[in-house]
Each structure stands twice: as structure tokens, then as C-alpha cells.
Design goal:
Elements (H helix, E strand, L loop, with lengths): L1 H9 L7 H10 L4 H11 L4 H13 L1 H18 L3 H19 L2 H10 L7 H10 L4 H23 L9
């Protein structure tokens, strides 16, 4: 992830405002809010502003994933991208037991605990491919994004000292 952030800062980031940079990085699959907050810290962005842009960037793709990922995967499978479509489906299948075990709260924790392979993109993929209720999945993912923001803000901005700034 740090390699991506360094690349972004030295290429696209030189042409964009810090706010837009953080917003866009937070939208990237696998990097998401975690990377956005790290970038915000490197850009010396104030905490509140950083969290705002990261959360907005991480939330934006969620409804599109929930509503359209099945059609996108089907299209990819029929247009010479079947290996990637299979990889996406396998990623969802592999993570389904983690989410199923605790349902709504499991999806929230899956999105919110910042570990490799977790986050809003994968959580949305799992929810969509396994026909979770759209409203419950959306709320669970949103809460997970907020949880990830709290955890990653504490990590990126120096532990509990952020509570008193």
C-alpha cells in the first residue's frame, strides 16, 4: 500500500489538491480509507478534514458495487475476463463465512477492522454476491467505514493523542 501512496504522491498527486488526492485514494480498492488516511497524514492535512474526505471517498463506490457488481462480473465473464471474474467471486466466497458467522455485525467488523483483504469494496462484494438485504448491508458497511476511520485515524495520526487535539 505504501508503494501505491508513494507513486500517487509523485505522479497524480502533484497535480491535485490534497483533498481530492485523499478522496481519490480512499476510493481505490484494497487501499481504501486506510491509504487515504496515511496519505492525509503525509500531506499534513488536519484530522477532521482528512476523515471527512476519506469517509466520503470510501463510501462513494459502495452503492454502485452493491447494485451492479453481479452484472459487471457477468459481463467480464462473457468478454474475455473470466479469470478476473472468477477471482472476484472466489474472493467473495472465501470471505463469506467470516461475514455469515455474525451477520450484520460480522459485515460491519469485516469492513471496519483494517486488515489486508477487508474493507468496503470486499464487504460490498460479499454482500452483493450473496444477496444480503440491501438496506442492512448498506448500513453495516457504513458503520464499518466509520469504525475503520476511527481505527486508522488513531494509527495514522499518532494514537490516542488525537482525542485531545
Amino acid at each position: 500500500m505504501t508503494g501505491f501512496i508513494e507513486w500517487f504522491m509523485s505522479t497524480l498527486g502533484t497535480y491535485l489538491s490534497p483533498q481530492l488526492s485523499v478522496f481519490l485514494v480512499s476510493m481505490v480498492p484494497l487501499v481504501e480509507e486506510r491509504g487515504g488516511l496515511i496519505l492525509a497524514r503525509l500531506l499534513k492535512m488536519p484530522i477532521r478534514e482528512a476523515v471527512l474526505w476519506c469517509v466520503l471517498g470510501n463510501i462513494l463506490p459502495v452503492p454502485f458495487i452493491l447494485l451492479f457488481i453481479e452484472r459487471v462480473i457477468e459481463w467480464m465473464a462473457n468478454h474475455h475476463m473470466s479469470r478476473f471474474a472468477e477471482w472476484l467471486e472466489e474472493k467473495a466466497r472465501k470471505n463469506k463465512p467470516k461475514v455469515d458467522r455474525y451477520g450484520f455485525w460480522g459485515l460491519m467488523l469485516f469492513v471496519g477492522i483494517p486488515l489486508p483483504g477487508t474493507g468496503a469494496w470486499t464487504g460490498s462484494l460479499v454482500a452483493a454476491l450473496f444477496d444480503m438485504d440491501l438496506k442492512k448491508a448498506s448500513l453495516s458497511i457504513l458503520l464499518g467505514i466509520f469504525l475503520a476511520a476511527v481505527i486508522m485515524t488513531a494509527v495514522s495520526y499518532g494514537g490516542l493523542g488525537i482525542l485531545f487535539s
